[in-house]
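Hey,

Quick one before I head out. I ran the complex with magnesium ion overnight. Inputs first:
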Amino acid sequence: MDAVNKVEIITKTSSSQLVKPNLSDYRRTKREFSWDQMQSELSGLPEGRGLNIAHEAVDRHAFGKNEHRIAIKWLGRTGKTRDYTYKQLKTKTNQFANILETLEVKPVERVFTLTGRIPELYIAALGSWKHKNIFCPLFSTFSPEPILQRMSKGNAKVLLTTSNLYQRKISRIKNQLPQLKHILLTDATDHLGKGLWSLQKLMKEASDEYDIPPTHPEDHAILHFTSGTTGKPKGALHVHSAILNLYMTGKYVLDFHPGDIYWCTANPGWVAGTSYGIIAPLSHGITSIIDEAGFDAQRWYHILESNKVNVWYTTPTAIRSLMRVKSTPKETFDLSHLRLVHSVGEPLNPEAIRWGQSHFGLPIHDNWWQTETGGIMIANFPSTKIKPGSMGLPAPGIEAAIFQKDDHHKPMKINTPGTYGELAIKAAWPSMFRGYIHDEARYRKCFSDNWYMTGDLAMQDEEGYFWFLGRGDEIIKTSGHLVGPFEVESALMEHPVVAEAAVIGKPDPMTGQLVKAFVALKQDKEPSEALRLEILGFGRKKLGTVIAPKEIAFLDDLPKTKSGKIMRRLLKARELGLPEGDISTLEF
Ligand code: ATP
Ligand code: MG
């Protein structure tokens, strides 16, 4: 791939690091790593009663030096704020666990949430893990149908939501959810009967003492639906031992240090918002910022500045949105506390990394993982050099490789650097999903000889760095060449007026598939025929005539999932006049 040879390399020296990274020697840490060591850095339930996410994330910090440290700093949409220390979070989550006990909810039964980013959502997640229930967060912006599908597929026993969302979305589907026994309304002041409870009232009545029952590391803890980028979302199940991966990546990738202020912009409706918006930071006893509001460039810069955020975890879409508005954060805001910026969810265009350097004075660290992997698998580490466009190196304890099918369609590991194939991860790591609900066959099909096949195509270079080509079903075959949308999109983004691009293959009698790009322009830029021709020419110059888009269409915004991923399959379906398929996760 051309990008590999063309990129500049961002080398970090110890003087460019404000704080010594937890992982200062990648090869050595990887060589010497053991999951037992990670386990020994956690505390485990008292008296050897097992491993529970909520104990590691809350209770073990709720005394001693972290007792009064702010665990969650909540920023309300309208300016209200609420802080919870680790001690207070322990009390609240104990109360929530006691509510589940009082309502006779049995361990393993599923607790769903349908709320925005409000403190009750976080308390419910942690309280559910204490009571050994399976937690399943939904985006509050889902319409009733996708909520119904997920809650009935996931066998929801309890739902936490607001009165408003209940009225607008749940009341009309409730009759179709016979297994749903309890609805906890976060803002109701009184119980409303028929399983409709006031959370506030229940919390007041609940004891704040709670002993977490023995928890096996393999006990189910989380049900997460995938983003639905490529098709109907799948429900992936995770277990309590996922905490090991989340703690490990908090330590080595996000590089948490005591006293850090951390902000993950993801919503828990998407796995990143649960794994890294709830569990990982709390497992390190640091302070996590939760912002109720959505994207707003000025608000975001202000949050980074006023909260003195050290470590920031966001998405390529958010970064591209920041790039889209004219702003000079480094000059306008004091971001001197910011030490690390990380990104996940989609490939991070080299242009975005360069923009990070010029606008924050920091390169953005891309990392790769999936709902199914539960935690970060491949990453750019604070101490390793960055090759913009590459997703980095496998995390400690993680083995990644490239596979290609042999003549009998059996995936075989490829040991030659530079060869593209399917990215696979050696099973089993602690946060690996343990099943797709109601689809055991599909789950089994994901594995070949103890390797989990990710469905993404990538390449590993001589130095072990992984380069993302695209999702298996998004690769374009044009005139005998395999083209990954990412390469074309990244090249188009280098044009000064292009804010975002999405590329699809369109059936074509001459070439098999022609490359078509959909382009969104930066603020104040108007589409025109002249601009279309200019971008076509720019693409040809950057990529050559075979790979460059033959067609370009302008869109105000690209269709995205609620987790911020470009939905190329939808652009393709619309282009070809085909059915749109499952669009339950479409943001607009
Ligand atoms: P679905 O499986 O329902 O189609 P999805 O795959 O988008 O949805 P997620 O599990 O949220 O659901 O996303 C994981 C996918 O996101 C990865 O398989 C990969 O395609 C993409 N991805 C995540 N991080 C990166 C990254 N850093 N670089 C490239 N792709 C990434
Ligand atoms: Mg997927």
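The mean pLDDT is 95.

Talk tomorrow,
K.
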